[in-house]
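Exam revision sheet. Question 4 asks you to relate a sequence to its structure. Input first:
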Amino acid sequence: MTSFTDSASTALQLITALDSGLLTIVGRSLSVSAIACAIACVLGLIVGAWLGVARFAGRALVLTLLNTFLAVPSVVVGLVVYLLLSRSGPLGFLGWLFSFKAMVIAQALLVLPVVTALTHQVVEDAEGTHGEQLQSLGARPLMRSLLLAWDERYALLTVLIASFGRAISEVGAVMIVGGNIDGFTRVMTTAIALETSKGDLPLALGLGLILLSVVLFLNVLIALLRRWRELQEGGTASMPSVGVSV
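Answer key, structure tokens:
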């Protein structure tokens, strides 16, 4: 208990003193996750919205594969990206392995199925309610998907927030493709794993507290957004039930 108390006290001192090493790791972690989410969300929102409206042969298979990708372990994604970016891989000429870019790619691939699947569900529900009316006005599938996505923009905003939480709490994939190099590719999750194994509990605990604070903030933001939407629409809003976990 004394060891834990001392570690917690030192961790709080590092946070309040704005330790440069700690802030560098936090800043890099936020940057990687933000860029990865931006890439994944642009693609995921478009594809997910289209899947929510389009009807074509093989759609059920596509949705099954999409749901399967939701359960793929992050280390598998990291392994795939590693093989693609390794010297003997098809993208080895880029020289991105063990770099900031490699971590962005890995996190984007992890987040993409989440954004696509949740967007598909939101837009498909909206299609069942308003799709027939839009179709009668001559809106084709692509246009309907965009219109419905815009109409459900507040619900989709919670998807974006949750996807950022998924990215920033990831450890397996970025450890494999980033290498956890001090000053270059070390982020919060990989630093926590390394510092804990080294016995540097104050730094690990400090980073853990910051990571928990970020996740808590994201969940509070989702809850506030859902509550605001319910008030705006008289309690009839249908927000996707998403959350952020570490």
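Marking note for examiners. Residues 87 and 126 are 46 Å apart (CA to CA).
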